[in-house]
Write a structure and sequence with these properties.
The chain is of the alpha/beta class. It has 2 domains: 311 residues, 4-Layer Sandwich (Purple Acid Phosphatase, chain A, domain 2), CATH 3.60.21; 168 residues, 5'-nucleotidase,  domain 2, CATH 3.90.780.10. It contains 12 helices and 25 strands. The strands form 6 sheets. An 8-stranded mixed sheet has the order 2-1-16-15-3-4-5-6. A hairpin with a 2-residue loop joins strand 22 and strand 23. Helix 1 runs antiparallel to helix 7, helix 5 crosses helix 6 and helix 8 packs across helix 12. The structure holds zinc ion. The site of zinc ion (ZN) has 6 residues, from loops.
């Protein structure tokens, strides 16, 4: 995907919004152009890291990135550079999820991040964990539009913005969090917050950041490009120079209304490199070169590789034990994945006849050996199974509205059949298992009103799957797929 990275580049004269033909060297740093008022800055930006610290496939993970940033970009505590993040920091592979972000933040501290936006998934483990991460971070967590319902204030673990002076440039960094957060994390975790409109938040905090001396204004937004493009004209009026995005895992370097919009993809597969020359006399960017750089080539930083490996060693060793084998990748949205998730649930909770979940909560299971960690990565958020009583008619309505993964029920030509071969009776009451986040309205599910008194079973959504896979004893000669048809 990042092969396009080499080509996503703008060399822009901002203020006029005019794009210049790019005849610049691969990594301009403007060092030779500096004067008393013209100051250079290098911004290194990533979003949606989701804790992918370890190298995967062709990508270098944190050790690859550390090498690029330290050796190639010269990013140190003293360099004229800022490393920034657009949020969704840790829900992801087992190594990150297991430690509830502690390992990821340790790595981000070492990578020298100066600020990060709060993303929707940063609420996945609850507010107490988010508070612990904020205390652990050597950088502030930012969100200007996250407000407590009680008093309208930004909560204690966040700051709306931060002002930092680097190489003579006073930089205002402002955070934004997607207004979709309540449907894209555990709804209960954010029930106490409002996510106010992006423009309204910027109108309030940009003057505050300017009053503290901020000249160069950069938004760290956990928002998709479509939102950033809509926001760009108002951002330009407010004097914002750069809108950094996230959430949609897009790869972007573009200029809208003279505002630079960037997004780096996801999973530390690459980073946005923005080298700029800032005119402190006029408050404008005199020149900027922005590009997406891939974290694929070259070596690894040995110190960072050791730091990541140390976290792996700290995890419960049983996490890495091999408990099964899949011949091919099991895709997150496949019927095989629906069977892998729902069959163990129904076996562990036989009082239910049907099980439903959203494919959007699932990551694909890679081919090859399966460990408990593989299954933790497959379902990276915590959920408890809820037992709802629904009529057959209500169940069909839920299925046709939300198109979930389902178990205990099959559909052919609009006819629904239960696992025992009997047709689904619209009037009969059935017990249906569903993860608590969906029951509570996550992923836009509207089911709670059909059974407001549903039973929380106390059963985690991963444990039955881990036990089921372990009991199967799938192997190269009898891979997991054989049990999922
Ligand atoms: Zn997100």
């Amino acid at each position: 995907m990042l092969t396009r990275g080499e080509f996503l580049r703008i060399s822009a004269l901002l203020g006029t919004g005019a794009l210049l033909a790019s005849c610049t060297p691969a990594r301009p740093d403007y060092a030779e152009r500096e004067s008393a008022s013209l100051r250079r800055l290098l911004i290194l930006y990533t979003n949606d890291e989701h804790g992918w610290m370890e190298p995967v496939d062709n990508y270098g993970g944190a050790a690859g990135l550390a090498r690029l940033w330290r050796k190639i970009e010269g990013h140190t505590a003293l360099s004229p550079s800022l490393a920034l993040s657009g949020g969704d920091l840790w829900t992801g592979p087992a190594l990150s999820t297991y430690f509830e972000g502690e390992a990821t933040f340790d790595i981000m501290n070492s990578l020298g991040y100066a600020a990060a936006a709060i993303g929707n998934h940063d609420f996945d483990d609850g507010l107490e964990v988010l508070r612990q991460r904020a205390a652990q971070a050597h950088f502030p967590l930012l969100s200007a539009n996250l407000r407590q319902k009680t008093d309208g204030a930004v909560p204690d673990f966040a700051r709306p913005y931060t002002v930092q002076t680097i190489n003579g440039i006073t930089v205002g960094l402002i955070g934004l969090t997607t207004t979709e957060t309540p449907i894209d994390t555990q709804p209960a975790h954010v029930a106490g917050f409002d996510f106010i409109p992006y423009a309204e938040a910027l109108e309030e905090v940009v003057p505050q950041a300017k009053a503290e001396g901020a000249q160069l204004l950069v938004v760290l937004g956990h928002l998709c490009n479509s939102n950033l493009r809509t926001l760009a004209p108002r951002a330009a009026e407010l004097g914002i120079h750069i809108l950094c995005g996230g959430h949609c895992h897009e790869e972007t370097v573009e200029s809208v209304e003279g505002v630079t919009i960037v997004q780096s993809g996801s999973f530390w597969h690459g980073y946005i490199r923005m080298a700029l020359l800032f005119d402190t006399a006029t408050g404008k960017i005199a020149e900027m070169d922005a590009s997406l750089q891939a974290n694929t080539k070259g070596g690894r930083d040995a110190e960072m590789a050791a730091q990541v490996a140390a976290w792996r060693e700290q995890a419960d060793p049983s996490l890495w034990e091999i408990i099964g084998y899949a011949k091919r990748k099991i895709d997150w949205d496949s019927l095989q994945m629906a069977a892998l998730i729902t069959r163990p649930w129904l076996q562990a909770y036989p009082a239910a006849q049907v099980a439903l979940t959203s494919p959007r909560y699932v990551q694909s299971l890679p081919a090859g050996e399966i460990s408990r960690a593989s299954l933790l990565s497959m379902l990276p958020t915590d959920n408890e199974l809820v037992d709802m009583a629904l009529t057959g008619a209500q169940l069909i309505q839920v299925i046709e509205t939300h198109r979930p993964h389902m178990g205990g029920l099959s559909e052919s030509g609009g006819v629904y059949t239960l696992a025992d071969g009997s047709p689904l009776d619209p009037a009969a009451v059935l017990h249906v298992l569903i993860p608590n986040a969906l029951y509570e309205g996550g992923n836009r599910f509207s089911v709670r009103e059909m059974d407001p008194q549903a039973r929380y079973t106390g059963l985690g959504w991963r444990e039955p799957i881990i036990a089921w896979v372990e009991a199967l004893g799938s192997s190269k000669s009898h891979p997991l797929e054989e049990y999922l048809s």
